[in-house]
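Hey, I was hoping to borrow your eyes for a little while. There's a protein on my desk that I can't quite get my head around. The fold is given in discrete form, as structure tokens running alongside the sequence. I'd be grateful if you could look everything over and explain what you see. Here's the protein in full, and shout if anything looks odd to you:
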Amino acid sequence: MHSKLTHTTGRIIIKMDTEKKNWHQFEDGTKIRLERKYDNFNRRHTEPINAIVVSAENIPEDSEILIHHNANHETNLIHNYQSLSGKAQADSIRYYSISESDAFVWRNGGEWMPLPGYDFALRVFKPYTGPLEGIEPELVKNTLYMTTGEYNGLICHTIRAVDYEIIFQDTNNRESRLIRVRTNGDEKAKREEEIVCINHNLTKELNEGRLYVGLDKSTAKPINKL
């Protein structure tokens, strides 16, 4: 059905289950509904971002991608594509034409891979070394440990507030997270590269176990325990 839709230059045609993020599945297979939008104004947390590629320039059809949390806006919605009926209106599947710059990562049955221009990273933390117990490590601001790309295995300084955390629904129907960072500029979107420089001293401290990395303070660990 959706094979009739074809992308234009700089766009990606996707289909999205707008209710996909509103469920959690336990290990025994039981599923419960999560009403995210009533107690949380963080759109990264509330908005669906898992999508399936219908047509794109450099991403295989039927690949799964993760997109920007504002990309499922009404301005990108493809109207009047399906026959008007009560069943179609009740269906949670919607079709969108989004900008290529709003797609961050993809997979086709395997591991998540960053799309060109992006890479994955973890935040950097300095652990407390004093006499007290239970003190959380301190975030090293504007600094990321890169886990893919040309900076893989290095701690880099970034411009301010660029550690964009993707909150998505994983294959086990549970929430999962990735941090993406722009490692190449985007001239069309007038967005600069977010990596400023490599810090070899901090990288050395990490490799010696004096720094932790992770998504947040509670999951941060020495590099040899990841």
About this structure: The chain has a mean pLDDT of 90. Residues 166 and 178 are 5 Å apart (CA to CA). Residues 118-225 form one domain.
